[in-house]
Amino acid sequence: MQRCGEDEEEEEEEEEEEEDGGPESALLKSPFQLTAEDVYDISSVVGRDLLQLSAGPEVPAAAARLQFSMVRVLEMLEALVSEGSVAEEQLRMERDGLRAELDALRGRGAAGSAPQVRGAARGFRAALRFWAALRCEGGWERRARNSD
């Protein structure tokens, strides 16, 4: 015999599964919105289908579900790998652009424009101090609120 609290907990779990759409709903999400719980749900679905393949009269239906699950998991992995590759390439291009800009600035500095470089460095340091002061004093938030 179950206690009243256990019945309530089971009902809450069933309601959560119904609201979430069950573990199968994780397969319908975008790979970039998956959580750790979704990964566990996907493994649960795949594991359940594998068990049904090994024992039971519903082998064709289980095989079809497993095939769908595996194809979807592979699509998710492909999307994640592709997104990572694109981000890595963008970072590499940005780094190369910054290096070229730095080399150009160094070239101009070596060509006799040392006073200009020192003046720009002083201005840059002043801007950094200004932003640091705003951040430390909470001035950033105050100025944003006052400008509205």
Automatic annotation (TrEMBL):
Q: Could you tell me which Pfam families the record lists for this protein?
A: RH1
Q: What is this protein called?
A: RILP-like protein 2
Q: Where is the composition biased (Acidic residues)?
A: 1-22
Q: Which GO terms describe its biological process?
A: protein transport
| Domain of life, per lineage | Eukaryota
Keywords (A to Z) from UniProt: Cell projection, Cilium, Coiled coil, Cytoplasm, Cytoskeleton, Protein transport, Transport
Please give the residue ranges the record annotates as the region Disordered.
1-30
Tell me the classification of the organism that encodes this protein: Eukaryota, Metazoa, Chordata, Craniata, Vertebrata
Q: Which Gene3D superfamilies match?
A: 1.20.58.1770
For the keyword Cytoplasm, the answer is yes
Any one GO cellular component localisation term in the record: cytosol
Q: Does the keyword Cytoplasm apply?
A: yes
Q: Which residues belong to any copy of the RH1 domain?
A: 22-108
| Cell compartments where the protein resides | Cell projection, Cilium; Cytoplasm, Cytoskeleton, Microtubule organizing center, Centrosome; Cytoplasm, Cytosol
